[in-house]
Amino acid sequence: MPPLARCTVLLLLLAVALLSAPAPACQARGHNVTSILLGRPGLAQFSRALAATGLADGIDAWDAVTVLAVDDARMAPLLQRARGLPREALRRALAPHVLAGYYDDATLRRLLHPGAGGSAEIVDVPTMLRAPPGSGTSAAGTVRIARERRAGGRVAFVPQPQHAGDGDARAAVFYVRPVHVAPYNVSVLLVSGAMSSPAAAPPEPPSDLEPSTARAPAPSEHRTSRARAHHRLELILWICVAVLASAVVVLLCWLSWLCLCPVIAATRN
C-alpha cells in the first residue's frame, strides 16, 4: 500500500475514534444520590424523601459531600411527624444529614482517634441546612462530629447549636457503617437515626407579612453556579472535539485529493 494511502487509512481511523468518543470526562466525576440509594435494602424511604424535598439535587451539585442515611424503620416516625406539614419542614429536618465535604470511615478514624494519627476529638462541619432568620448564631446549620466517650467512643453526629437541657446523648446520632463511597466525591454513611435540632425547625413567616405573602427561600446560589460551570465546561469540550474532528475531515479530504491526482493524471495520459 502506498505511504499516502496508509496515512489516509490511519487518519480515517482516528476520526472515527474521535467522533465515537463518550461524553467529556467532566461527567465522570458527577454522582447521582438517587441512583446510589436505588435498590439499597432499607433506604427506600430516605431516598424518596431526599428526592421529594429537592435535597437530592443539591447533593448531586456538590463536588464533595457526605450523606448520613437513615433506614426505613427510623425514618417512619419522622415522616409521620412531617405528614400534613409543608415540604420545607421535611427538608429542614433532613438537611443536617447532608454534610459539606467528604468523610468516609478512614477519614473519621483519622480525625477523631488520636492514637491513629488524629488531631482532634471534635470537628464542626457545615451542612445544607440554612440557619433560620433571627437565629443570631453562626453555629446554626452545622453538625459536630465527635467521639462520644459515654457511648464507648463511638463516632457521633450532633446538630448545632446545643442549648441548656439539650443533652448531646439525646440529640446525637451514631455512625453505623458505610453504604457507598466514591473517594473524595461522595460518601453515604448509615447512622442510627434522624437528627433533631432547634435550627431545623421551619422558619416562622415575618410578623409584618401575611403568611400567604411570605416569600419562599431563594434557591441555593452555590448549587446553581456550580451547575452552570459544569455546563459551560461541557460545551467548551464538545466545541473542541467538533473543531478537531472537522480538522481531521479536512485533512482527509486533502490527502485523498493528493492520492487521486496521480490516478487522474494517468487516466488522462
**Rounded radius of gyration (Å):** 27 Å
Q: Provide a count of the helices.
A: 9
- In which order are the strands of the major sheet placed? 2-1-7-6-5-4-3
User: Into which percentage range does the β-strand content fall?
Assistant: 15-25%
Can you give the helix content as a percent range?
40-55%
Name the helix and strand elements from N-terminus to C-terminus, one letter apiece.
HHHHEHHEHEEEHEEH
What structural category do the secondary elements indicate?
Answer: alpha+beta
Q: What is the rounded distance between the termini? A: 23 Å
Q: Please provide the count of β strands.
A: 7
Unreliable segments of 5+ consecutive residues: 23-28, 131-138, 164-169, 202-223
Main sheet properties: 7 strands, mixed
Mean pLDDT rating: 75
Outline type: elongated
Structure characterization notes:
With 269 residues, the protein is an alpha+beta fold. The chain contains nine helices and seven strands; from the N terminus they run H-H-H-H-E-H-H-E-H-E-E-E-H-E-E-H. A seven-stranded mixed β-sheet has the order 2-1-7-6-5-4-3. Strand 4 and strand 5 form a beta hairpin. The longest helix is centred in the last third of the chain and has 48 residues. The radius of gyration is 27 Å and the shape is elongated. The protein starts with a helix and ends with a helix. 25% of the residues are buried. About 16% of the residues have low confidence.
What attributes characterize this protein structure?
9 helices, seven-stranded mixed sheet, 44% helix, alpha+beta, 269 residues
